[in-house]
């Protein structure tokens, strides 16, 4: 059992490193010169090169990836140049709402799934079981973009304090977040 857990942990770490590498390389393919994006199109090539050098973007991509991984291992999630603050503080500011919404959805899933599972176990291979299974498969496989727009306006009106943008919106004043 210990060998199995060790092997699964090693595979998980390898998958996480692989995913981070692919994302890192894709970001470098999309934004090869971050200084140009941050400073704008009016910045001179010397200013862009200086900014890239100061922020570690002038070194080779493998070196940048190594610095990224070592910073991540030490808890440094980076810096948002667009919002001009550390990423950790951005995440911390939104953590409460995320935990509230995740906890509420988990509670709702438990309150629905346990009684439904008991019902399906009691009425196995009967009409009610087949209908419940069909409804479950339909709702589970339905893309969010088909299901959620019908519920979002209702959610926004009832829970105006939990806007997805992170900022409270006064719905009575016509704000749309």
Fold and architecture overview:
By secondary structure, this protein is an all-alpha fold. The protein folds into two domains: 75 residues, no CATH class; 84 residues, no CATH class. Strand 1 and strand 2 form a beta hairpin. The model has no long low-confidence stretch (mean pLDDT 83).
Instruction: Look at the helices and sheets and give the structural class.
Output: mainly alpha
Terminal CA distance reads: 50 Å
Oligomer classification: single chain
Indicate how many domains the architecture comprises: 2
Give a quick summary of the entry.
The chain has 177 residues and is an all-alpha fold. It contains 7 helices and 2 strands. Helix 5 (87-122) runs antiparallel to helix 6 (127-141).
Feature tags:
single chain; 177 residues; mainly alpha; two-stranded antiparallel sheet; 7 helices; 2 strands
Topology:
Layout: H1 2-30, H2 34-39, H3 45-54, H4 61-73, E1 79-80, E2 85-86, H5 87-122, H6 127-141, H7 144-158
Antiparallel strand pairs: 1-2
